[in-house]
Amino acid sequence: MGRKASKATDNPYYIARIKAAEENDIFTSREKAATKLGIERSRLARIELDQIDPYAEEVDIMATAYNNPHLCTDYCNNVCPVGMRKLETQVEARDTSSIERLVLKFLSSTQCMEDISKILISITEDGKIDKDEIKDLQDIFYAMDSVAENIDALKCFVMKDPKLRPFFHFDLDQK
Question: What is the pLDDT of residues 81-99, one digit of tens each?
């Protein structure tokens, strides 16, 4: 295995390559990886050492080769100007005033999940949904949407904080 690049230890592309090397020896060295990826070795080194930003196509190639789709999300949220603008718009559109408030909203929206589970089992146990069960199912989807919105708001809060952002890889554009 190649030597550890101490200057690149917090670089997401380096971390992804090293993790991929656990499954495929070709990624143990930057030279072999560069050949496999079709990226010049010195360019790959500069990317992994945070000296340059990769092109979107290079990120896509690395994400596929390393089996790490989060590289694309990270790139879109932190490097790509279009993605960063879109993320800022999404974050601004959501209420991210305080983590305490967001956590309370999330916990409040999840309090009914045990009841929802029981109702879902009741609705689906016979393998069909009757007319009488449609209203219950609509209410369940409304409750699940509320939970999902609160999860997204928590994610946006984290992505808005520059100290926390590098540690998380969320795809906030799933909707």
Answer: 777 676 666 555 555 568 8
